[in-house]
Amino acid sequence: MRRRNNPFSNHRDSEEKLRHRTTTESILTSWFELYIRRLLPEHRFTEDFLDLLYSNFSEEQLRSISVDLLGVLAQKPGISGDVLESAERFSNELEIESEPKDIISSLLVCAEKCGLRKEAVRVLEKHCGLAAEPLDDIRSIDRFKAVASAFSLDADELNLILFLFLAGTNDTLESVVGGWSSHEKPRGMGICIGVPESRMHEILSATSRLRSNNLVEFTMRNTLDISLYDELNEYLAAPGAGSLYERYLKPAGISNYTLNSFPVRASERALCQTLLSGSAPVQILLHGSEGTGKTEFAKSLVLDSGKTPYVLDRSEDSRVTNLVQLTLAQAALPRANSVIIVDEADAMLDGGRRWLADLMLGDKEEKARINTFMDQARCPVIWIVNSIEGVQASTLRRFAFSVEFKPLKPAIIAARVAVALAHIPISDRVKKHAVALASSRELTGAAVANLCTTLEGLALGNMEEGQLMEYVSALFAANSKLVSGKAPRANKVNSAYDVGVLNVSMEAGRIIRAVGINVEKAEEKSGLRILFHGIPGTGKTEFARYIAQESGRKLDIRRSSDILSPYVGIAEKNIAAMFSDAEESGDILLIDEADAFLYDRAKARQSWEVTQVNEFLTRMEDFRGVLICTTNRLAALDQAVIRRFQIKTEFLPLRRECAEQLLKSFFPELSFDSKALKCLSAQGPYVPGDFSVVQGLRATLPAEDFSPVIIIDALIAEAKHRKPEEKTIGFSA
């Protein structure tokens, strides 16, 4: 909504007010009066125009006008006697029932009907006292001069800016302009600023400086509305507003991190620095996951390039508003040593939210607005977005360079936590605990900063070390869940784990050695693809954790919820990103329960079910790392997928002696006699997962009730749950 900062009163200023009027107000008032004087010979005597005219007349002036108009209309037929009588009484300073301006309006209407408009206009010009020339050039006002200088405006363009500003801050003038039809507006504005209508069409064309630089706004209501953007209007209305760029930009400040501490390739950093160090107004795009340090990287990058970073200080989340602010700011910014950082620019670059609506509405100018700005940029700009989905190709082509930021690896998160905690007065034990937690959680750089601030506050409370460590664990777990939307996945092997008890179709040691060879000579290998299949609970996922631990690599666990999406095409992008991330990091990639999306394409009902399997096949063939997939339903997998695994291993239920071995490993504090072991062997078969489930009973039973009998009974029950129900023919007994 346009603000009203009207510097003009709706009546003739008194001499006292004139004495106290500032130079700026006097100059603006002289231009305002000049517009009225120029309109007077051309404009119809409408109610709005006469109100504008009367706002500058005193009662004495109106009386003098009444006297002269009576002379013009003398002896003219068809004039109402009541109108003449009221005018004569007013002229002779007698009591009247009507308002003076109503009497004058009636006389002017009569003059127009009688073909005496020119004579009536001469009377008005004689007594109006309106300025015939402005007191000074509009460039004498600093804020108008700043706008003209920033955008290289000529006199006609600046005069139109002034007219639209005055129309936007004076209700009466705005009403007059609002009464003009769409084709009358260019002519009326041209009359006011003293240029031909053809020149007005040039100034207001789509490619003009005023429109391409987001200074003048065109909106279609009942008629075409031409006005200044609110941001420019507010700047011009604010005395002592200072520089345009100071209004919308703020210094970015220093960065807390060195440039080489970010997960960006050295070659990419060097190229960005080279681009920013030059004189060209390059556009650089930083995109990727939230909280990965894009903003801090941008600040470090600009500072290391020897320039000053500024951040767009947005007042609201509006694409047009932000773009107008950016246009105004960058035009006035010292260009030789400045770079603008536009953070959270998704909406400004569309980011998939507005472009479809614009397409449906057919607003071509709206869609081209951001491209026009980028083409006419006067200083380097770094744009930061979380996603480039939906940004039009025409916009993406305008970036000189782009850097993608992927989720921070645990090692980087841990290093940042260590640096951030260095100055906090807590024990080394607590610091090591926090670093260890950070290395196993899904966190962002922003989350780490917030966590460290919280820990700093807790440290001031002189809390005991043990309780502080509990709070640290709770803080990291809660923030990890907020960031990732789920609880952290355990990547550590159970302390009771024993690879020797596994009943697998291929020797476990052979699989571990194959992974070790691939990890050691990753550059020379084409990748290793392993498929673990078998009934639930046989230890497939846990064995994958053990392999990662033995090979010294981290395990990147992905499930269908990390890959599938309700939107067509997103699953394929997630698959591509998953393989790319694992290859870059060197992590072992584990796809748990792969049958959830790698189903047989012959049974597919939708085209996207086929395309996501095709994408997976392509990516797994090109993948040079270690891929492990697990499934409980081998028959459900696509045959082409199964063929591409070099190692296929079936996980079977435990052998009897291995079940007894796991019993002692999971419950070492209990003694199982021969009767109990015989009872266990008589039932089954068992899988390692049964023992993990029964171990969880500890939390639900008193210590004295957690006995060998309870454990054996629970294991037998777990085994029975896994057996399929027997089908009978006919009626049951």
Low-confidence stretches: 1-20, 351-363, 725-733
Shape: elongated
Distance between the termini: 81 Å
SS content category: alpha/beta
Mean pLDDT, to the nearest integer, reads 83
Give a count of the beta strands, DSSP E runs of length 2 or more: 14
Specify the number of helices. 35
Level of helix content? 40-55%
Strand order of the largest sheet: 3-5-6-7-4-8
Query: What profile does the largest beta sheet have?
Result: 6 strands, mixed
Bin the strand percentage.
Answer: 5-15%
Q: How large, in whole angstroms, is the Cα Rg?
A: 40 Å
Summarize the structure in words.
The chain has 733 residues and is an alpha/beta fold. It has 35 helices and 14 strands. The longest helix is centred in the middle third of the chain and has 20 residues, at 465-484. The model is unreliable at 1-20, 351-363 and 725-733 (pLDDT under 50).
Topology:
Elements: H1 15-20, H2 23-39, H3 47-54, H4 59-73, H5 81-91, H6 100-113, H7 117-128, H8 142-151, H9 155-169, H10 171-178, H11 184-193, H12 197-203, H13 209-212, E1 216-220, E2 224-228, H14 230-237, H15 244-248, E3 249-251, H16 266-277, E4 283-288, H17 294-304, E5 308-312, H18 319-332, E6 338-342, H19 355-361, H20 364-376, E7 381-385, H21 393-396, E8 401-405, H22 410-421, H23 428-438, H24 445-459, H25 465-484, E9 503-504, H26 508-520, E10 528-534, H27 540-551, E11 555-558, H28 560-563, H29 570-585, E12 588-591, H30 607-622, E13 626-631, H31 639-643, E14 647-652, H32 656-666, H33 674-682, H34 688-695, H35 708-722
Parallel strand pairs: 4-7, 4-8, 5-6, 6-7, 10-13, 10-14, 11-12, 12-13
Antiparallel strand pairs: 1-2, 3-5, 9-14
